[in-house]
Amino acid sequence: MSDILTDKMVTTRKNQSCWGCAREFPVGTRLRKTVIVDAGDFNSSYWCEVCLTIWSECGYRDDDGISQGDLKSGDPISWEELRKQIESE
Description:
Strand order of the largest sheet: 1-4-5
Helix content: 25-40%
Radius of gyration: 13 Å
Number of strands: 5
Largest sheet: 3 strands, antiparallel
Oligomer: single chain
């Protein structure tokens, strides 16, 4: 079982990639950063607004293991439609 140490919106100070879709984001992008500890190992990840929306709407839980890029590669058409909708708002 993993413990969440940090879960907050940040403005990136370095280029980062989203864990859910594997897209690259430049410095100054607002992303959600999570830091977890699992069996003594610390891991951090960044999440874009599209992937956060999919995560919450699809009922994923924090302990659901996904690999980087899975949220986009699992249904790229729906993912792209949601991205266009969010970015047009």
